[in-house]
TrEMBL record:
InterPro entries: LysM, LysM_dom_sf, Peripla_BP_I
Name used for this protein in its record: LysM peptidoglycan-binding domain-containing protein
Superkingdom of origin: Bacteria
Domain LysM: 40-83, 101-145, 165-208
Cited Pfam families: LysM
């Protein structure tokens, strides 16, 4: 098979198969309800942090702490926070956020009632909240209310209009007196009342033209919808936007100026190579793909030139960019041009919080820990859980904090002990029970910490099999299998991870073989494996667009791709933001030497 030269700058591959007042061309929403209009409420969801919530609403963590002093000690899912409304005209929001205020949906409120309350077209509210539907327009959810341009709203002005009134002629009244009384001409009077040509008689009923001032409302060009039609916008079915050929742009730092590619560059090259294997696999199913590959280099200099290319505006999908100073401009470009944008590497980026076109593959740590805590409690709710504190300076503080909070919320009892090399066996032995499993959770994920405890725990497991000793650990443990695989089996070990490739499975073996045949080399031994990550992201996203169109987000629940290393479970972070991959695996090294991988949903 032909080898592919990856040192390219650009590579093209086609495969067949409220009232509004204008201010500086913007508008300011004025609310007249009796509620506190300076704050709204946010219901905390699993994995959210104060920093993320503040960023989501364009305020600072200190703003939230000021209104919610207890939040300094921590927040928990299900609780509510007061959030200050930002200054929507001179606010601190990013440029692409526009001018909005936020509204927390109250009982009995409808899309129509909010449109009336804020004097904002319902279609503008729906457009500002791409995630809004009948299932997300619920009590306690927050939505954005746009400060709509004046010309988009009905306008009211005072106008002089002519009306007709009926008048009964009094005794001795003449046409002259009537005309003088109502300040009209005889011509106007006779025009409305032709019978007056025969003379004016007392008791006659005649029409009189009079002028009056009235407030006249001018509707916008768009047709105003009825209440029923407005509320129906939330359940309006979304048609699939089919594409004949999926246009994909891959943006990676190949660093072609390096004489010898650095370790980091080699990872991105491997990602690209894995991505090409996905393109080949999809081509073989009849999928037509137009792939453009760009070398972004470091910084934004080359990226700015790439984003000027007209061809990029026609892409259905952009994948890549590594550094935050690159990701921001690409996210803004994708939003402006209605292109789905996948961030495959970093878990630390804020664009997903306010950009509906962003998909973040690598789960942010706060979401990862919350989901792992949930999975751990689901598994071990009926067991004897023992937290083993190993203070090595690299402890898993945030996960342990989330795990404890989840156990306390579910009223699952647990015990904590401190690691002592001389007394560890005895300390654990005194806590073991025979009527349930005994689950040891070390507070450090390092190999050094694992080496300290694995032998004493194995001895206990072998001498007291009736206790069902079990170990619960961390993603990085899968990189320790060369030294610890037998221990994992012996200790019935579970780990959580957002990436896991089972080297003993047929799927992984087949991928390794194909990669070796194409590129005459093995994958780099790192976690996660970038080649497989490239393959999985290509298979998922290109496959999604091929089957469900460029607006595949409306069918995410129907996409069931079983990744070789990566699972995909995307959830929108709010009604106006993008999607975060919240999938994690629970990997079980069973005592019968089998390994299972299950998703936590």
């Amino acid at each position: 098979m032909n080898k592919i030269n990856i040192y390219v700058l650009t590579f093209f591959l086609s495969l067949a198969g409220v009232s509004i007042y204008a201010q500086n061309n913007r508008s300011q929403v004025v609310i007249t309800s009796g509620q506190d209009n300076n704050v709204f409420f946010h219901t905390i969801e699993r994995g959210q942090t104060v920093y993320a919530i503040a960023t989501m609403y364009g305020v600072t963590p200190d703003d939230i702490y000021r209104l919610n002093p207890d939040s300094k000690e921590g927040i928990k899912a299900g609780a509510t926070l007061k959030i200050p409304q930002r200054d929507i005209v001179g606010g601190t929001a990013k440029k692409q956020d526009g001018n909005y205020i936020f509204h927390t949906i109250q009982p009995k409120e409808t899309l129509y009632s909010l449109s009336i309350r804020y004097t904002v077209p319902a279609t503008a509210i729906v457009k500002a909240n791409p995630g809004l539907s009948t299932s997300t327009f619920t009590i306690g959810k927050t939505i954005r209310i746009p400060a709509t341009q004046v010309e988009d709203l009905p306008t009211t002005e005072l106008k002089t209009v002519t009306k007709e009134i009926e008048y009964t002629v009094q005794k001795k009244e003449t046409m002259y007196r009537i005309c003088r009384k109502f300040n009209i001409s005889s011509y106007e009077l006779i025009k409305l009342n032709p019978k007056l040509k025969e003379g004016v008689k007392a008791g006659m009923t005649i029409k009189i033209p009079v002028q009056a001032e009235e407030n006249m409302t001018t509707e916008p060009a768009t047709t105003m919808l009825s209440e029923r039609d407005v509320n129906a916008l939330l359940s309006e079915p979304k048609s699939i936007e089919r594409v004949n050929s999926v246009k994909v742009a891959l943006l990676l730092p190949f660093m072609t100026n390096e004489a010898i590619p650095s370790t980091e560059t080699q990872r991105f090259i491997e990602y690209y190579e894995g991505f090409l294997l996905a393109v080949d696999s999809l081509k073989n199913t009849g999928c037509s793909i137009d792939l453009s590959v760009y070398d972004t280099g470091n910084g934004t200099k080359k990226l700015k030139e790439i984003l000027k290319e007209d061809a990029l505006k026609n892409a259905n999908l952009i994948i890549g960019a590594v550094q935050n100073d690159q990701i921001g401009p690409v996210a803004e470009f994708a939003q402006k041009n209605n292109i789905k944008y996948v961030i495959p590497f970093t878990s630390k980026n804020d664009d997903v919080l306010s950009n509906a076109y962003v998909y973040q593959v690598n789960t942010p740590h706060s979401y990862l820990y919350a989901k792992a805590a949930q999975g751990g409690c689901d598994l071990f709710a009926e067991d004897n859980i023992i937290l083993l504190n190993i203070r090595d300076g690299k402890d898993k503080t945030e996960f342990i904090k989330a795990f404890k909070a989840e156990m306390k919320q579910r009223q699952i009892p647990f015990t904590e002990i401190n690691y002592n090399a001389e007394t560890l066996t005895a300390d654990v032995d005194t806590l073991l029970r025979t009527d349930k499993r005994n689950v040891i959770v070390p507070t450090s994920g390092t190999l050094e910490a694992l080496n300290k405890i694995k032998s004493p725990l194995r001895m206990l497991a072998e001498t007291k099999p009736e206790c069902g000793l079990t170990l619960f650990g961390y993603p990085e443990w899968q990189t320790y299998t060369r030294d610890c695989l037998e221990d994992f089996y012996a200790l019935n070990t579970y780990i959580y991870s957002n990436f896991y490739a089972d080297n003993l499975s047929k799927e992984v073996a087949d991928f390794y073989t194909k990669y070796k045949n194409w590129y005459s080399k093995n994958l780099i031994n790192i976690f996660p494996k970038y080649g497989i990550l490239g393959f999985d992201t290509g298979m998922f996203f290109i496959g999604a667009i091929n089957k469900y169109g460029s607006n595949f987000e409306n069918n995410l629940d129907k996409i069931h791709y079983q990744g070789v290393q990566t699972g995909f479970d995307f959830h929108r972070v709010n009604n106006w933001g993008g999607f975060i991959n919240t999938n994690i695996f629970i990997v079980h090294y069973q005592s019968d030497f089998n390994v299972t991988r299950n998703e936590v949903r």
